[in-house]
Amino acid sequence: MRERIPTAFISFAATELTNNGLTGPKVVEITSAYAVDFSVDIPHARYPFDAPNKRTALLDNLLRFEPKQQYQAIRELCDRLNPDGTNRALVTLKVKLLSEYGEFADQDNASEIHRTLAVETRHWLSGHPQARKLFDEALLKHDQGVFRRNTLDDLRLALEILVREIFQNGRALENQVAQVGAFIRERGGSPQLANMFEKLVDYYTKYQNTYVKHDDRVITAEIEFIFELTASFMKHFVRLNEPRN
């Protein structure tokens, strides 16, 4: 296990954050709040600061924190500056942070559903607000550890709505299995991938129908897998639906 987040990544994060909405006064205000929380002495605790620019001030301050504290600060700054997930640069930064340095996440909060996948999925769903709203609600319920049946129901409905929008029909998900395969073939997917998706969607709907009506039968350990499977379906369908050159 690595002992620290490389300085090069912290520098990259400081550049992206200050290029995408983090002002000099906010650099001081936010990092000073973390310094108080973590009992850390930072070099730039008042504005104007003794640094050539806000990126350098942020970098200098972040480098005073421990790796877990750096991870938390960068992740929360990404969320603060990009609450709707539409800023591609900050989405990329957060994905890099979560995928490459997730070992520094606070394990007390670690039911983070493989946050990389969740962040990417929310980004891909930006053009499908109804499906994204349901996906976000499912993520919130999962994080809070409540409403397990509702979480599964939100996921199924989010996927169903997305597929309806793409296929421009009003069918239930279980009645779209053949069209899923045809869609993948039409978009250049291999017959094997199309067949696999048909089977996966078929099993997915049967699983949901078995458990979504009975909260006491939901197997908690399986919810994360269903979450990731739903997110993977969504990302792939949206990508395939993008206009081709």
Descriptive terms for the model:
single chain; 245 residues; mainly alpha; 2 domains; 0% strand
How would you explain this protein's 3D organization?
The protein has 245 residues and is mainly α. Helices cover 67% and strands 0% of the residues. Helix 1 crosses helix 3, helix 2 runs parallel beside helix 3 and helix 4 runs antiparallel to helix 5.
Task: Draw up the topology in text.
Layout: H1 7-19, H2 24-38, H3 54-62, H4 67-81, H5 88-101, H6 115-124, H7 129-144, H8 148-167, H9 177-186, H10 191-211, H11 220-241
Helix pairs in contact: 1-3, 2-3, 4-5, 5-6, 6-11, 7-8, 8-11, 9-10
Percent helix among the residues?
A: 55-70%
By DSSP (H or I, 4+ residues per run), the number of helices equals 11
Describe the biggest sheet? Answer: none
Order of helices and strands: HHHHHHHHHHH
| Radius of gyration from CA coordinates | 21 Å
Q: Overall mean pLDDT score?
A: 86
Instruction: Give the N-terminus to C-terminus distance in angstroms.
Output: 43 Å
**Uncertain ranges:** none
Beta fraction of the residues?
A: under 5%
- Dominant shape: elongated
The secondary-structure class comes to mainly alpha
Count of all domains: 2
| Strand segment tally | 0
